[in-house]
Structure formats: structure tokens, C-alpha cells
Amino acid sequence: MIASHERHMDDVLRARLHLAGDAKLRLGLLRGAIGAADGASRLLFGKPFFALRESEALLSRLAEVAKDELVTTVLGLDGGTTILPHGLEHVPPTGPVVIASTHPTGMFDFVAHAAALGAVRRDLRVVANQEAAAFLGPDMIVPVRIDRENRAISTKPVFTAMQAHLGQGGALLIFGSGRVPHRRNGQLVEPAWRSGATRISELTGAPVIPAAPDARNSRYYYRLRSAAQALGGGDDNIGAMVASLRYAAELLEKLGGRYDIHYGPALPPGTSPEALKAAAEGLVPGLYG
């Protein structure tokens, strides 16, 4: 069992840092550095910085859970996490629909949406990286791979899968920018949204529901991201890539809290990425700059 879930985390680390499958030495050095940082953080601050050991324990536990109980299991940890949805009346109970969301925190966003939307759309599928399958189940995701510049790889199969699901009358969740935002002057700054939600909604005639979780990451995430970006010559792709190593810690630190998640009135198929982004960010006044 230990070897199995450690291999799972190895795959996660390779994907986050875009390491080759045979880069065993680099992966070993990375795990050693993360372990040392976690050890020092436990000693100084009473909690791990990256939470590698805790992540592996969580993945090991989830591997034994039925796929339809994954979300409730995650949200039941640490005394229970409460997700408070607002505007679910805007989400049609049947028929094709695209939910276009901001992406403020990382893995927690997947779980929060799945919990909120599960009551009204049990046919929900999420466009996400393969790592999300551990938290949502493989049947709930449309898997997508992202390169170092935050561009989707092999977009044709992904688009075909999205079109097929909507063609069957399903609900599809897309994170507009596909990237967790950075912070500037106390507000989140999400990158320009991609055209995926616009194109697929126009092609299928599906209305688009703007959505936004009211959450943000800890100051440690943003400080790590800023430091990595500075060391990388100002490249935010490097900052975001390195900061993604804190996604598990950010998820674990949110468990036990209460979070609002908002859904807005439907927008027409083919609404521009700029209009979708503005509508979604406007659901949580003051969070985005």
C-alpha cells in the first residue's frame, strides 16, 4: 500500500513540475528537498509547508473509498467542511450547460464545486488534470494536460469529449483561465480566460453559468509563488509551477472551514471569454482586482 500511493504522488510531482518519466534522480532530490522543508516547518511552525507525507496519507485513504463517496469523504475530514452554494437556481436541472468558473485556490475548487453542484447535476463532469480524479473519481473528469506555459496539450480529444458530454445533455465545469491566480495589492489577479467555454457553448448551444468560489490561498502560497517568479527572471509560469507544490497543503488547511460558492444568471452560448471572466469575478466583489 505505501509503495502504491507513493508512486501516485510521484506522478503528481512529475506532472506539476513537468519532469520526464525517467527523471528518477531529479524526482528523488525533489522529494528529499520537500521532506526537509516539511520537517523544518513542523519544527518551527507546527505544520508542514508542502504536506507531502499528509498528501500521500490522504491519497492512500481515498484509494479505498467508493468513487461516489470521494467528495463527502474529503469534506468530512477535520470536523467537516461546509460549502454554502448561492444561485443554484440559475443552474438548469436538465439539459446541456457549461459552468465557467474562476479558479482561486487549486484542488479545493474542484471539490467545492462538486459538492455544491452534486445536488442539482449528478451528470457533472469537470475539465481537469488527471490529479483531480483522486478527489472526484475518474468518471467525473475530462482529463487535460497542461504544458509549462499553461497551454493545453492534445486539445482535440478534450474538445471532442466535452462536445460528446454536452451533446448527451450533460453539465460541464470549465475553469476559465485554467490557472490559479497570483495576488497583487491584496486582490487576486486571474489570467485572461481561454476560449474553451466560449467555443464549446457556441458549438453545442449550451447556456453558460458564470461561477466563483469565495476563497483564496494562504500567504505562504503567494510568497512562494512570488519568490519562485523572481528567481525565474520574472516568469510567472515558473512561479505558478513551483507554487503548485503547495496545492495539497492549501487543500488540507481549508478543511474544517465554511466557504461560499456563487453561481450567476445564465449567459448566451458563445459569450466572449472577457465577458465570462467579468461576470464570474463580479460574483465575489472585492476578491479580484
TrEMBL record:
It holds the Pfam family Acyltransf_2. The keyword Plastid does not apply. InterPro entries: ACT14924-like_Acyltransf_dom, Plipid/glycerol_acylTrfase. GO terms for molecular function: acyltransferase activity. Residues 97-216 form the Phospholipid/glycerol acyltransferase domain. Keywords: Acyltransferase, Transferase. This is Lysophospholipid acyltransferase. It comes from Seohaeicola zhoushanensis.
